[in-house]
Every structure is written in structure tokens, then in C-alpha cells.
Write a structure and sequence with these properties.
Layout lengths: L4 H11 L24 H20 L8 E5 L5 H8 L4 E6 L2 H14 L4 E5 L7 H4 L2 E7 L8 H10 L1 E10 L8 H4 L4 E6 L17 E6 L1 H10 L4 E4 L9 H5 L2 E7 L1
Parallel strand pairs: 1-2, 1-4, 2-3, 4-5
Antiparallel strand pairs: 5-9, 6-7, 8-9
Length: 257
């Protein structure tokens, strides 16, 4: 049954803050200003859609019609919903945080999206046996958190038929010799659990973790290694994106087989 306006209003406040703004029925949305942790929650989906979606649509022939889309580390499902809006036949969002999945299920119910599914699953668990294959994979904000990025991305590539879009923090190497800057390098860090709740990854980090942040060259080389014949980094030509895109510490890549 469709949710009433009052039910939607009450549930949004119960589950806030949401990391993604999603428009809901009755002119409502998931964004509650007084309950938000940071302004990024208001702009994340809209900015990345403006930045990356045109290249994705071009790679897919203008729409996602007839396609299966996988959204890895989907959070509350903002990009999964965008894929549905772009015509995808079926969208699967996976995450490991119960709170995010509860938010995502609410959004799905409120919008009445029957071709949208969410599962509790890590990127390392993905295989053709348990999820099948997808035409498009969205890998936003997770690569630089992985302890074994090559193995995890090999698994993701194995279930991706056609296009992968990767949005990630990247390392800029200043003050080093030019031949070092041109190499595909990964910066290792050991991150302790805890910290501010504004850092959304703390919700799934249960202990100290070893993470590897790549250079842009490392992401490109990795995607080539995974079998994508065309790999390019998207230039941040849109105005109003987060500063880190213009500074070169955040980057989006599109890879096509």
C-alpha cells in the first residue's frame, strides 16, 4: 500500500540524517536541514549526477533502458534511485550498514519502486553465483576504504558486463620526482575505529582497518587490468562541485569494455 503523507514525514524524521537527498512523494525529500550532519548530504547526489551521468548515458546509448545496474556501497540508495529514473530495468544496491539499508528500504517503499532491490553484502562477496551479471556497476566512495582493492575490484569486474563508474579519493603526489608521480601508487594508512558520526564509514568500521588510497594513475591502470578497454578520468567541468574535484583529490573514472 502507498504511504500517506504523514507516514512519509514521520519516517523521514525517524531515519534522518540521510547521506543522500532523494525526492519523495507529496513534495517531500529525505533532507531535514536541522537534523543533517554536514552540507555534503544536501549536494552529494545532485553534484555527482551532474558530473558523471552525462558520460554514463553516452556510454550506454542515451539511457539505461533494458539494463541491470549494480550500486556498490549504496548507502541509502540515492544513486540506485537515479539509475531507476534513467530507465534501468533492475537495480541492486548493496551495503553492509543496517541503518543505510533501512533508509533505502523506506525510500523504495515510499517511491513504490518494484524494480529496485537492496541487500546486505560486501563488495568482496559479489559473484556471478549470488548476484548474476550487470550491464553497469556504480562504485562510488568505497575504493579507497578497501584493504585488498585489487581482489575486491576483480570481483566487481567479474559481474560487470559493460560499464563501470568509479568515484574515489585519490592521492596527489607533490614534492616528489616526476618519474615517481607518474607511477600507479597506493598510499597505505591504518585507520582506527570511532571518531565523528559525520564520517559515515565509521558506521561499518568495526575495528582498525588498513586502507589504500590510489593515485589517479593507479585507478586507471587497475581498470585496464580488469579488462576495460576504454578508461578515462572525467574532468570536473561543472560549476559548484565539491572543491576536492577541482583540487584533484577526488576523481571520477568511467570504464567501458
Amino acid at each position: 500500500m502507498a504511504m500517506t503523507e504523514q507516514q512519509v514525514r514521520e519516517r523521514v524524521r525517524e531515519l534522518a540524517p540521510f547521506h543522500h537527498v532523494v525526492d519523495l512523494p507529496y513534495g517531500l525529500s529525505t533532507y531535514v536541514p536541522e537534523l543533517a550532519h554536514r552540507d555534503l548530504e544536501r549536494t552529494r547526489v545532485a553534484n555527482l549526477v551532474r558530473h558523471a551521468w552525462p558520460a554514463l548515458m553516452e556510454a550506454c546509448g542515451g539511457s539505461l533502458a533494458g539494463m541491470r545496474v549494480l550500486d556498490v556501497a549504496c548507502n541509502c540508495g540515492g544513486f540506485s534511485v537515479e539509475a531507476v529514473k534513467s530507465g534501468a530495468d533492475q537495480v541492486l544496491g548493496v551495503d553492509v550498514v543496517d541503518r543505510y539499508l533501512e533508509q533505502a528500504e523506506f525510500i523504495k517503499q515510499a517511491l513504490g519502486c518494484t524494480n529496485l532491490e537492496f541487500r546486505k553484502m560486501t563488495i568482496e562477496d559479489l559473484s556471478r553465483d549470488n548476484v548474476g551479471r550487470f550491464d553497469v556497476a556504480l562504485c562510488f566512495g568505497i575504493l579507497y576504504h578497501l584493504e585488498d582493492p585489487v581482489r575486491a575490484m576483480k570481483g566487481l569486474a567479474s559481474v560487470t558486463r559493460r560499464v563501470m563508474v568509479v568515484d574515489t579519493d585519490v592521492v596527489r603526489l607533490g614534492g616528489v620526482l616526476p618519474f615517481v608521480r607518474s607511477e600507479p601508487l597506493w598510499l597505505m594508512s591504518v585507520v582506527q575505529p570511532g571518531g565523528s558520526e559525520e564520517e559515515t564509514t565509521n558506521l561499518w568500521r568495526q575495528g582498525a582497518s588498513c586502507q589504500f588510497r590510489p593515485t589517479a594513475q593507479a585507478v586507471e591502470k587497475l581498470l585496464w587490468f580488469l579488462g576495460f578497454g576504454e578508461v578515462r578520468r572525467l574532468k570536473p567541468t561543472e560549476k559548484g562541485l565539491e572543491r576536492r574535484y577541482y583540487k584533484g583529490t577526488r576523481a571520477t573514472f568511467i570504464a567501458v569494455r
